[in-house]
Each structure stands twice: as structure tokens, then as C-alpha cells.
Amino acid sequence: GHPLNTADIKKRHEPIFNTSDKSVKTAKLAGFIKALMVELPPVLHHWFVHSFRDPAAWFEARLAFTRSCAVMSMIGYSVGLGDRHLENILIDTTSGVLMHVDFACLFDHGLNLETPEKVPFRLTPNLLHTMGVRGADGV
């Protein structure tokens, strides 16, 4: 495989973006995301293994990551925090703690954006795989 960029992805899946029928677009987009997940599997858990080589350090970092992700998801949901993307969700490289920055999109403001945010918080496959084999179900 080769690295994908946004232009390549859009070009390869142009028909999805060229329909005005919302239900057709939603169905095509779901298929597109499923296919994309095969091409771009979760990798963040590899970074944890590489960064925290000692098993005890890895376990502590993974636990800190999982707990901080859970806490920030609950807080973010409670205050309607939106605009969560890779520039606003960071990882402390010394502890594994997930940190959020940029709190300008509060109180469900994300619902009123040009493309409204549909999810109350981010819980992507990358985050779930990093939490361990049980994912969001716990250690």
C-alpha cells in the first residue's frame, strides 16, 4: 500500500459526493467509511507499545489513556463540547493521558455548524483499540 491523502480518497470515491439525495448519500457514505476502515486500520495502539516498552509502564499508560478518555468523553458530553479532531485531542507522551484543548465549541454549538456534528463525543476505532482487547468494556 501507499499513503492515502484526502484528494486521492475523494477522487476514488467521487460518486458518493455527487448525489443530492440525502438517503442515498448516507448509504454510500456508510459503505465508503467501511471500505476506508479496511484501508486505514487503527494504529495508535502500536505507538503505545513502542513508546512504553516496559510492560508495567505500558499498562499504566494505557490505563491513564483509557481513564482520561472516559472522563473527557463524559465531561464533553455533559457540556456539549464539539469540534473534536486531531488538533484538539492530544496525548501526553510521558504518561499516555488524553488531553483536550480548544473549548470554544461548547453547549452543543456543533449542532449548528454548516455540517452539524452528529456524535456527542469521539470514540473511534483507534481509541477503542488503544484501550485494549476489551475496548470500552474495561481493563
UniProtKB/TrEMBL annotation:
Keywords: DNA damage, Kinase, Nucleus, Serine/threonine-protein kinase, Transferase. GO terms for biological process: DNA damage checkpoint signaling; DNA repair; telomere maintenance. Transmembrane segments: none annotated. Residues 1-139 form the PI3K/PI4K catalytic domain. Pfam families: PI3_PI4_kinase. The keyword Secreted does not apply. One of its GO terms (molecular function) is protein serine/threonine kinase activity. This is PI3K/PI4K catalytic domain-containing protein. It comes from Haptolina brevifila.
